Recover the amino acids of this structure.
């Protein structure tokens, strides 16, 4: 398998300066990509279910009554920004910037992730007030099967950020931890990609065809 | 069954145990149910007792349960699969007996019969075929590609733990509560809360979800292992055929397990949280479930059968003393099958009511799969053609497969025609078809692999005579049991019926139960073969490691292999590298220098997650919420704690490796090479006098 | 300026371009929705194309997936996954849509 000299594996990588970490994380990063693709199928199927159940409102509240585009807009911006900040944490690692820079960007990402979750949960609560609970209709079941699944992934990402931040403080920049930072960044970018699917299909799709 | 689940033990109470049923209402049905529970309990007592009596807890923990060695994990998978196989076969025999006891109602109650076919299917697919296939893959893949372990040894251990804990749920369901009555497919709305408020479907759901996670992790692991850890020079087109089938099978897992997980979790949401994915009311749509389930279900059968094809490919080549014919076409056929298997799922529900156009499209796609499969069959026959064939046990399984599997495949092409399917769907014709592909296809392949690679794993050969008895019994047993079902299916006998009335079915049912007893005998013969082989092991030792004059890398190292597999990572220059080296006379080189080798340390995380996830599932099934929550927290915490571990590998010093390897090389040089005529004689110490000329 | 900080600057610029591009596309999507209302298939088509564009922008600028040789492996993986995903999703929508029509759960 021929590769360009500076990259031992494609996509996000640690660069030549961390050659040993780069080598060690080649296999595991590829494995993580495969995992993400498997996860992608999970989401893909939930999207498909949502599409097939968009009409199954059973007389309950529909997208027009339930969705609050302003809040969705805010969530989109927050998640997009957090995708940038996690990337900056990656860069700080790759270019050997002081460790506090990495931890700083981690903290910013964490705060943004938590803000996102706060807004999302607030949305769910206001939906519930209008009768938009998953027990009401097939459509709402599909909605609550998909969007909170993404939220759950963001929650897992937040826990990962915290754990990894602690580990970086305890152990310093070991090869293993550097490769974990790469995977966390991948994961976080992936969640933003899924979110684009959610706003396009769940929210705008729901409003157009629901 | 109580349905209020607010107490300390959730909805678990005295009535949940089958013994309560026996006391209240002693009849045949309850006796069978209690006998099954008793077998589980007695089995556990015997195992625990034996371990204590022989003081084996320590070695079990140190050498096996905490091991991250892919070879040991593979062996544990296979042991687990064989235990579950015993239960699955017994259930099959009871079901055949029930139907043979007709016309009329037989000796079991309808609910009990439904539990039997549900557990039989679930066990055979998820807890026999999958662990057996991936047990073999675990043992073989790193050895075949010249690697020291799989890509993620600890994740491998976790996969095993999750698969086993899920399988244990099926055992627990015999003793506490009951299992699902909804078949292995568990179609709602029947399995929904409205029609099935009991614990049965919940056992099914959580066993499927947890084993599904385990299997997905395995798939990722093997895809990455084969993609990234091949020895230098092992290009893709030099991979042993078996590894090709495993990489395709792993890709199938990565993409096909999610639909099953989604379907099962959505069913769980319906049952636990009153969602409306598949309910009859408020916009639920049960057809979504059928669609999701078979999005998984069809790739699943190929992920099981492809590795069996791989095993046959190795077996035919070795025992014909020939290069595998048409390697390239086999690779292409394997990949085509893997991709096509994603395009045919609808043929499992032709009669669900979609338009003729859709049925036709999926019917044609299904028939297309016969083309690459046909290519494979011809390639195997061409491999045999003019080979110097030895009728050893694996080869006999292979020949039995070639003949019987074609019948099964052809009946599949018949079923792929939607108009025919309308006539025979949900009859025993279908049951005959899929047993016809799964037994000769998957099971015979796995047994062939078990006989073929056993000497590599344990250092001694299996008894040949009992092996032949086994082949004969499996083959005859299969034919007597399942071929009649084609006819009775065409006559219109529905599958899964605990009772029937038409007297013309009766002779077929009697023949089938006789066949089932032969299959039971076949299973016993496997056990007897193992027992006799262990007793006579001193006479069949093959420490040099190549008893069959075989072709691939795993035979170039000692049997059993050392923990680090290869003292020196081989440089691969040919397809069938070991065969090529034997032809050149360079099969057992003495290396100039040795290196330190680091191997992964033992860890308990897999076992811990196995236990915690088992309790977690049990708590969810019985609505013991505090326990489920506690287990979730503990699982997360133990996983995070594990990530804090910084020491993960230990070093085996070069000096020790040199000593072991040179001792083995001395053995190689002092052994007498044997001709193929003496393959099964005690003289065969694992050094072959190569008979590979036929390769050219 | 040494080579290292030059590369750092260049890579950081990549992220910023990705961020700016995505931001722009996000504003465009919500702007269209605000300006034209989310009623007609035409508006929805525009929105979904912009979503697709944003997916590609993020794949290229955040995940560094492109057609260079070193990225080929991941690109292959993503393309294969996309193919399987399309088969699954389109197949599901086709089958379930057809069933819905034939079962009269939605009007013809």
């Amino acid at each position: 398998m021929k590769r360009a000299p500076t990259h031992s594996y494609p996509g996000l990588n640690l660069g030549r300066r961390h050659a040993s970490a780069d080598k060690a994380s080649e296999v595991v990063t590829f494995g993580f990509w495969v995992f993400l693709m498997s996860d992608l199928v999970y989401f893909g199927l939930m999207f498909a279910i949502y599409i097939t159940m968009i009409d199954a409102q059973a007389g309950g509240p529909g997208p027009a009554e339930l969705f609050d585009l302003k809040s969705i807009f805010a969530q989109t911006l927050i998640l997009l920004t957090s995708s940038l900040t996690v990337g900056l944490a990656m860069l700080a690692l790759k270019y050997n910037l002081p460790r506090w820079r990495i931890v700083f960007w981690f903290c910013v990402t964490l705060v943004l992730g938590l803000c996102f979750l706060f807004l999302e949960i607030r949305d769910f609560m206001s939906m519930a007030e209008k009768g938009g609970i998953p027990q009401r209709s097939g459509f709402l079941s599909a909605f609550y099967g998909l969007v909170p699944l993404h939220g759950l992934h963001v929650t897992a990402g937040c826990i990962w950020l915290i754990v990894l931040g602690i580990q970086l403080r305890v152990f310093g920049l070991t090869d293993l931890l550097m490769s974990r930072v790469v995977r966390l960044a991948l994961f976080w970018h992936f969640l933003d990609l899924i979110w684009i699917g959610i706003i396009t299909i769940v929210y705008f799709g729901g409003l157009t065809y629901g | 069954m109580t349905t209020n689940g607010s107490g300390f033990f959730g909805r678990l109470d005295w009535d949940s145990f089958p013994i309560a049923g026996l006391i209240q209402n002693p009849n045949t049905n309850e006796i069978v149910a209690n006998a099954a529970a008793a077998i589980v309990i007695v089995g556990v007592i015997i195992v625990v007792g034996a371990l204590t009596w022989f003081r084996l807890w320590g070695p079990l923990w140190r050498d096996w349960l905490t091991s991250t060695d892919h070879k040991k994990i593979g062996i544990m998978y296979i042991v687990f699969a064989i235990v579950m196989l015993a239960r699955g076969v017994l259930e099959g025999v009871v079901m055949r007996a029930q139907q043979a006891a007709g016309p009329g109602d037989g000796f079991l109650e309808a609910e009990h019969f439904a539990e039997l076919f549900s557990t039989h299917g679930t066990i055979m697919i998820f807890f026999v075929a999958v662990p057996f296939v991936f047990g073999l893959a675990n043992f073989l893949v790193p050895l075949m590609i010249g690697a020291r372990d799989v890509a993620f040894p600890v994740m491998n251990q976790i996969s095993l733990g999750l698969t086993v804990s899920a399988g244990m749920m099926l055992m627990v369901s015999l003793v506490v509560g009951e299992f699902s009555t909804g078949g292995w497919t568990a179609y709602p709305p029947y399995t929904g809360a409205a029609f099935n408020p009991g614990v049965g479907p919940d056992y099914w759901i959580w066993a499927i979800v947890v084993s599904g996670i385990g299997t997905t992790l395995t798939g990722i692991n093997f895809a990455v292992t084969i993609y990234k850890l091949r020895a230098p020079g092992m290009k893709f087109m030099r991979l042993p055929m078996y590894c090709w089938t495993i990489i395709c099978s792993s890709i199938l897992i990565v993409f096909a397990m999610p639909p099953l997980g989604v379907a099962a979790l959505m069913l769980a949401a319906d049952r636990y949280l009153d969602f409306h994915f598949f309910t009859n009311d408020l916009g639920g749509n049960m057809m979504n479930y059928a669609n999701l389930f078979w999005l998984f279900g069809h790739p699943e059968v190929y992920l099981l059968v492809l590795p069996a094809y791989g095993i046959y490919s190795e077996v035919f080549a070795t025992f014909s003393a020939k290069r595998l014919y048409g390697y390239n076409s086999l690779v292409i056929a394997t990949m085509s099958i893997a991709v096509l298997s994603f395009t045919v799922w609808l043929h499992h529900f032709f009669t669900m009511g979609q338009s003729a156009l859709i049925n036709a499209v999926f019917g044609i796609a299904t028939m297309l799969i016969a083309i690459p499969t046909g290519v494979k069959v011809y390639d195997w026959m061409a491999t045999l053609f003019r080979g110097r064939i030895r009728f050893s046990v694996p080869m006999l399984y292979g020949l039995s497969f070639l003949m019987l599997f074609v019948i099964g495949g052809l009946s599949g092409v018949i079923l792929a025609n939607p108009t025919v399917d309308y006539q025979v769907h949900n009859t025993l014709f279908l049951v005959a078809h899929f047993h016809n592909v799964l037994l000769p296809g998957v099971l015979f392949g796995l047994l062939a692999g078990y006989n073929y690679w056993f000497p590599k794993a344990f250092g001694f050969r299996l008894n040949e005579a009992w092996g032949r008895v086994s082949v004969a019994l499996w083959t005859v047993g299969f034919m007597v049991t399942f071929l009649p079902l084609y006819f009775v299916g065409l006559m219109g006998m529905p599958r899964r019926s605990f009772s029937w009335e038409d007297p013309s079915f009766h002779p077929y049912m009697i023949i089938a139960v006789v066949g089932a007893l032969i299959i039971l005998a076949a299973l016993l013969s496997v056990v007897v073969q193992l027992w006799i082989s262990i007793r006579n092991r001193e006479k069949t030792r093959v420490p040099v490691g190549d008893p069959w004059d075989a072709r691939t890398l795993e035979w170039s190292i000692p049997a059993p292999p050392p923990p680090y597999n290869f003292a020196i990572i081989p440089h691969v220059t040919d397809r069938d590298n070991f065969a090529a080296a034997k032809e050149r006379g360079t099969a057992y080189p003495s290396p100039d220098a040795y290196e330190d080798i680091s191997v992964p340390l033992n860890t308990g995380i897999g076992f811990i997650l196995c236990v915690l996830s088992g309790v977690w599932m049990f708590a969810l099934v019985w609505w013991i919420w505090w326990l489920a929550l506690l287990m979730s927290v503990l699982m997360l915490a133990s996983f995070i704690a594990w990530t804090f571990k910084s020491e993960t590998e230990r070093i085996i010093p070069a000096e020790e490796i040199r000593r072991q390897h040179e001792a083995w090389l001395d053995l190689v040089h002092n052994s007498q090479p044997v001709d193929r005529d003496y393959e099964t004689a005690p003289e065969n110490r694992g050094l072959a006098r190569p008979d590979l000329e036929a390769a050219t | 300026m040494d080579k290292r900080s030059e590369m750092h600057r260049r890579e950081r610029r990549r992220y910023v371009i990705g961020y700016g591009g995505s931001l722009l596309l996000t504003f465009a999507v919500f702007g269209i929705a605000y300006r034209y209302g989310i009623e007609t298939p035409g508006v929805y088509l525009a929105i979904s194309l912009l979503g697709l564009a944003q997916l590609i922008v993020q794949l290229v600028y955040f995940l560094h997936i492109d057609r260079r040789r070193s990225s080929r492996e991941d690109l292959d993986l993503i393309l294969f996954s996309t193919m399987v995903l399309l088969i699954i999703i389109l197949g599901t929508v086709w089958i379930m849509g057809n069933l819905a029509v034939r079962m009269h759960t939605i009007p013809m």
Summary: Chain C has two domains: 1-64, 68-108.
